[in-house]
Write a structure and sequence with these properties.
This is DUF5666 domain-containing protein. The chain is of the alpha+beta class and 133 residues long. The chain is built from 4 helices and 7 strands. The chain has a 5-stranded mixed beta barrel.
Length: 133
């Protein structure tokens, strides 16, 4: 009986770690100065994988195919994340500068340059209907 309980407890603990989402802000950060091939490799490897993260709202856009709003979230480390959502928080007046947390499926990543500078940043896109909390 004790052996069965131990095996069951061990299985539950191991399965919990397998489904834990990584923080996209810290995982993507090192790729800011990577080549396009390395960025594409990361994107292919992590397609539709669930990530979470948090940061401050840089922009809020309305409209979209499946989602009502898209938050542009600044995670720091030169990583911006597009978070398309229909979350009630989006319609309850989230403003630029507010801190939010999010979770969603990875959809793509590209490297871009800030306007009038030589500094790069990563724009990470999540799939429609990401969670915002």
């Amino acid at each position: 009986m004790q052996r069965t309980l131990f095996i069951l407890l061990f299985a539950i603990i191991c399965s919990g770690h397998a489904f834990a989402a990584d923080n996209i802000c810290s995982v993507a950060g090192p790729f800011v100065n990577s080549t396009s091939i390395q960025i594409d490799g990361f994107a292919d490897k992590n397609a539709l994988r669930t990530f979470d993260g948090s940061g401050s709202i840089r922009d809020v856009r309305s409209g979209g195919l499946a989602s009502k709003f898209t938050f542009i979230v600044d995670c720091g480390n030169n990583v911006l994340v597009e978070v398309p959502t229909s979350s009630p928080q989006a319609s309850n007046g989230a403003k630029i500068g507010d801190s939010i947390s999010f979770s969603g499926k990875f959809n793509g990543m590209s490297r871009r340059r800030y306007v009038n500078t030589h500094t790069w940043y990563l724009m990470v896109s999540l799939a429609d209907n990401a969670s915002v909390y």
